[in-house]
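Record type: ASSEMBLY
Status: queued
Input:
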Amino acid sequence: MEFMESQVEEVIRCMKCGNCRETCPVFLITQDESQVARGKIRLIKAVIDRQLELTDRFQDKIYNCLNCNACVTTCPCGIEVDELITAARAGMVNAGKPLPGAQARVKANVVVHMNPFGEPREERGSWLPAALQTPRLSPNLYHAGCAVSYATSRTGKALIRLLQAIDFDFTSMGSQERCCADPYFRMGEQTLGRELVEQNIADYKRLGVETIFTSCAGCLKAFKKHYGDTFRVLHVTQLFASLLKEKKLVLAKSLPKKIVYFDGCDIGRHSNVYEEPREVLQAIPGATIVDFPANRENGRCCGGPLMPSHPDLAKRIAAERIAEAKVMGVDMIAVACPTCLVNLKEGSRLVEGAPEIHDVIALVHRLAGVK
Amino acid sequence: MQKTKLGDQIKAIVGQDYFFDSYEDRLCYSYDAAIEEAMPEWVAMPGSVEEIARLMTLANTEGFPVYPRGAGTGLSGGSVPLKGGLVMVLTRLNRIREINQEDLYAIVETGVITSALHEQVEALGLLYPPDPASMKVTTMGGNVAENAGGLRGLKYGVTKDYVLALQVVTPAGQVVRVGSKCVKSVSGYDLTHLYVGSEGTLGIITEITVKLVPAPEHKESMMAIFDDMNMAAKTVADIIKSGVIPATLEFMDNTSINAIEDFKKIGLPRDAQAILLLETDGVKAAAQHEAEKIIAVCKANQARDVKSAATEQEKLQIWEARRTCFSALARVRPNTILEDATVPRSKIPEMVRGVTDIANKYGIQIGNFGHAGDGNLHPTILTDLRNTEEKQRVQKAIDEIFALALSLGGTLTGEHGIGSAKAKYLENEFGPEGLAVMRAIKTALDPNNILNPGKIFVADTAIA
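Status: finished
Output:
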């Protein structure tokens, strides 16, 4: 497996202290050292040192990682574990090792249908109003993302109605929208990922796009990480926060509930957006906004990224988050990521008396009183 | 018996889900936080004391080594399977069985995470004082086996001062109870304290009864900055001499200060030669009175500045320096070797000077920080072990640091344990006679040398 010099340096810097055991959601469920960053780094080192071949077992362990970056917050050496895991996956792809089943399916779906779920390409924009079905010139581009387009389009519809009601000017790629390429990068298909990024960038430039705003935290991460600095990239909650400040958006209805904001990893640790979703929630009349004991950069992952490959584990991790919220006595968990929304809902089925789970965007739509 | 058959028998005891023998899985139990690594033949995660007893009986009969392991965070190689055999992971035994507020004790299983116990007892207004830096991941069993210390060691003592009773599985597979819940108990030999700090060489600790104390009602935090390292070191001794025992008394040298500022600019003066971080606790008036005395001692020793935290926020700022220290040092070079040679606290000035001289002599970088109040400094060697020439210089420096500590009436290890790396020095501390007594105990309790062989005693010398 070919590694770049910088990754070899990262592996060597692991002092094997084991602090990553404190926060790794996969380890906390499995209690298996080979599932925690320290174990995975040791396995990668064995491959670099040619003590270990690219076995299926090695592959399985390297793919059984949420890329949530929780371990990075407790690593005294500051090892970029997420980068290392992704590089190891890319190394396997480059060495010609076939992807594991779940990732192979996701890849085929993105190649053929431009979304990881294998939903028909032509139906991607079917939930959008006619005016947004085809792109037009505009400095503002709304990128719904695959999850919102196919799985949580209620969130998307709410957003569109809201923005149209306040006469916010924007366009959308509509049915021509493509995957942001995050699934490719995460599974180690770097070349496919870069090609897709180039295609997307060319489209956006043609439309004169300056700002991309997205309702998907995964897409937000991808845009920030892989699209250079050509565009200003915002999460919808950031857009909302500034619209609220400018009084262009007003939350008229009250919601006298205790709400906890869930810091998703892609919007939080990966994109450094912590405060704006909270500012939006705090603008809700009558609501009390609280934090999980582990919040912001210490927030715990919902387990969502493991849904395709390890659905049971993903659900169990989500159930732990739900149980934590339940102990806090909240009425509602507010999320800003479609993956968190879907997986936390899955997990909530395992917890009796689980709080409601809503996307911040849908909440805002409801409370802004826009039809 | 053939290895595969032994593996099958181990698997039959713990169940398929808790038995591992693939290369990939074994590799992940070949290490702890020390440098040395070795591959086990099997890994098992027993789920009960009964399973542990059966595993020990099998090991003792068949003669394969057993390496008990908690979170694998030890800094002396205590859980590394030097002779192969079985790594026995004890983290599944993780229940807090009882917290008794009247008799002030807690009973925990061996795999309970230390800070999980902290949280539970602190919610009741109690304190389990041992607080090793790794407490958010370490297990109570590991803490007991290594006799872990921590920041509060100076005033509150270390793990051994809190262990009242243990349940232990012997190498022959017998389950025994030692010690008592009673504060006073002199029945028979004090076997409890024989097992505490035995580094997994005498028995498998499965259940622990620890003493609790009431939590202090108030804390005062201070930071003292010094232009002269010797004056800082002298201050440590003078504070104790003044009759004050701070809850925490931490030291950081100039290398550490600059590493912290390079990593996170928290506003420490880069030209300061040393910083002391102090905390007093107890009844409010007493903690405040002690803090005043400490400030006076610091000033008398030419502290450039003494900051006292007035708010919780300022308290956090003061301790951020200490919390960040190790992370900051760890990022300077590829490898970090954390030692814990300890001296009587009055010898801190000589120890600090001596370590600096050794660093200069061998041209290596050593950050010095740690629990100065109890004489337990952590000379932290920043190096690149791929450089074989530098590695040799580092080894020589380590040898000299240990010799220096012993020459000052100190000890090889304050809280990390002897393990394998320091085994060769142990005779220098206790002489051949002292070592012979230890060997006799090991032979009596583990005649077949199946428990953690290669630790404390230089490999193959445990059975004389």
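Annotation: The interface with chain B takes residues 9, 12-13, 15-19, 21-22, 31-34, 39, 42-43, 46, 52, 55, 57-58, 61, 74, 76-78 of chain A (CB under 8 Å).
Annotation: The radius of gyration of chain A is 20 Å.
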